[in-house]
Amino acid sequence: MLADMASKTCSVFLARGFGVIGMIHLLPLPGAPRFAGNARAIAEAAIRDAALLAEGGVHALMIENFGDAPFYPGSVPAHVVAHLTSIAGVVRSSIDLPLGINCLRNDGRSALAIAQAVGAEFIRVNVLCGVRVADQGLLHGIAHDLLRDRASLGAEHIKIMADVDVKHSAPLAARSIEDEIDDTLHRGMADALVVSGAGTGKATDPEKVARVKKRAGSSPVFIGSGVTIESLPSFRDACDGAIVGTHFKKNGRVDQPVDVKRVRAFMSAVG
Question: Quick one: CATH architecture of 2-270?
């Protein structure tokens, strides 16, 4: 079983050339300021988007509690973990694709626990090492706890995608991105890196991607925001893949459901 999970994860990170991870943006969960009062509708929307992303041909899926803004800077409440686990479990049982978990804003420990519980293959962590200044305040690196959790759970098959110079934030002090990459890979023990633009849906600078990939070497590098079918040629041969959310929605709007025609067109361009 663990070997199968590891194999599926590697198919996203390495084997497909340019891996595309389709993002499932959850509607606001119970307890969030914008929760609409119907928890079942959240799960139904997630399953619908997951099915459309799979039908469109993405290589993997990722779930995050996108609708829960404003986000907690660290650990989220137990009810958030419970709802994320429940929804992720249904998606896991319905769609036979590698699955990732992102527990916003930076609760990688809960993401790992959810991933192990539902049989997901990877997680995303916004700040694995260092300190970032964000709208949540200071976001602190969690590598020291997360990697110990993974070891104690025997969950090394669950891979860690970690952001460098993560969106919606700024460094606490001036530091080269090369130094951040070195620490994230070699001291924080990330399995793959994510590089993004300034915010959700905002374009990522191709020169920044090339710089990150050059330093990361054989470690996989994924684009974390703003990839479109128009910008894809700038990235297709420059990194290992992309996490795509906004572009796959109707009219390219993050608050809309997934449009399978947009997914198919993008995946056709990926080849």
Answer: Alpha-Beta Barrel (3.20)
